[in-house]
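Contributing new records

If you add data, match the layout below exactly. Sequence lines come first and carry their own label; structure lines follow with theirs. Keep one chain per record. Anything else will be rejected by the validation script.
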Amino acid sequence: MASDEASRDEASRDDASRDEASHDEASLLRLLRAVLECDTANFRPGQLEAMTAVMRGRDCLSLLPTGAGKSLVYVLPAMLRAERNAPGVTVVVTPLLSLLADQLRRCDEMGVDAEAWSGATDPTRLERIERDLRAAAADDEGPTLTLLFTTPESLQTPRLRAALRVASDNGHVAALAVDEAHCVSQWGHDFRPAYLALKDDRDELLGGAPIQALTATATRATEASIAAALGLRRDHVVARSSLNRANLGHEVVRRECLGDGGGDGEERAAVDHVVAVSRAAKATAPESAGIVYARERGECERVAELLATAGMDVEVFHAGRSKESLRRALANWAGGDIDAVVATVAFGMGIDKPDVRWVAHWGPPTSLEGLYQESGRAGRDGKPSRCVLYADAGELDKIRKLDPGRAEKVDAYVRGTSCRRAALLSHFDEGAGGGARACDENDVPCDACADVGAVKRMNAAADRKSDRDAERKLDEMRAAAEAAAEEAMRGGGRESAAREPVAKLAAAKPAAAPPTGPRRIPAFRPPTRRAAAAGASADVAAKRKFVCPMKKSADDPAKRR
């Protein structure tokens, strides 16, 4: 009888839990539609699962594609707490101050009570945040804050830690959200050591609050590394959505095939290609603006100058610019007042501009994770957008020196002739076993799916040209070695000194693209007059009769005396 009663109590609790979950889901959907101002909006795959997991006190790793609304995973539960007058602060850790500022602006637009704690925050606001975190439940029902944005470095400041410890002791810390969670993984493409302290902070500082880890770029290895580095509990939820972005068309442009020659000709042709991409986008979406990514600050400045000379209206965005310059650049780009921004890879992280119609990489990125994340800043509104990667053999060699493992995959992507979409999805283990799907009738086709013949011809021509360039460099090295050898002989140097440049040349292996057809054998070069004369002298010397030194000494009259 007691057993039956216990079973009924358990069933009753399960029913109550299901009713509560159903009520929460309905409330979250209502808030979503209010935020998006659309009565028919629905959650994207993985969003609701991630929200409800943390609301039930469970850790969650959310793997959602760029533009899939990752920030709503922690914003909507915070709005629901505020609506129900339930005190609780979600601490949101972000990697960049620019990302923090943009998220704070969006919260203000949605009416969410959020603040940011960083070195750039006004001291008066810091005092207000500190007082609010220290508020007890008896004092005006606890903190009014629902979201507190900070960086992993700022989270280590004693003043903030002391205030958060008080809030935690009062039961007012709801969750720890880790945005761009791949930064915690040494397998990730943007590792940040400061993220490693978050595992201890959850237990020692935030009272064991559940963790929401969010990222758009995690392979299976990175996923496991994130879970271990953050100390996610064994029963943590993995909310996963397909990383396929059907509206993005990926294409690769081999620089070797542009222009009428190497060097400046290729670069001018690449600039013209970017200009054409920009003008095509402006023709259909006048208020749109593109992004051109470059790896280094100096390259950003140089590319921006080239594009401006070609007639584009561009701004530059990187950490070496003044705050006023960055603010102006971001405002002009976000408002669609310019054609494009030329920026380093951090630009655009978390910035929600829906109508970016194109993204270009001026050179190959160091990883496919970076390529996916940066290209994903195009087409957040779901409309067709272009993602163009410019590359040549020399640039591929450079990134191979930075990170050989990841660079090999980028190299294979650039030189590939199969579907770009499938290549990216396969990298993230999507479709493992059965293979990632290629572009279909619902996708904007990549260049390989649109015209595989053209891609094969481009790669073949580019590889032939890079072979010729490598042979020319080898000829130049050989000529330089021969000249050095002759100079050493004229100067009376030792034979070993003359041979040293030749030995180095023999050991050198010029970097060249793998051949796609029969190797071209360099034409025979007849010896120079100097070399022929030297060869003739060697033959005459070889024919002279050998004379034993001892015999010569015995025949020498001076020696006999």
